[in-house]
Write a structure and sequence with these properties.
Blueprint: E1 2-3, E2 10-11, E3 24-26, E4 32-34, E5 53-58, H1 61-70, E6 82-84, E7 87-91, E8 104-108
Antiparallel strand pairs: 1-2, 3-4, 5-7, 5-8, 6-7
Amino acid sequence: MRKNRTGAGEVKLPTKGRRVVRNSAHNGNGQSKPELSPGTVPWKEHLSSYRDLRELRFQTTKQNHKALGLLDSEALRDMPYDLTGGGIVVPAEAVPYFKTAGKFTQKKLDLS
């Protein structure tokens, strides 16, 4: 242990040459990348970052509530979305995750 610059108290310093790895995996190039839980997708931060968006509309209120509950699942927690009058706008890559919520229609949104 070494004393800090003011001389008051001691501070633990890491040993030279020691790496600190925080919840990451290596991609083979010596760079670290964040670990993903099984079944998760590295979602982009903003919905506007996606070219292919879908509006999902569920047949019943119960199915709609179940779909909204899926937004808090591990796989979809970081996914951007928007709520419309009775629908959910999501990236096209997310559509398969909502099949467990029930029957729904999907409409491709025209972004032009």
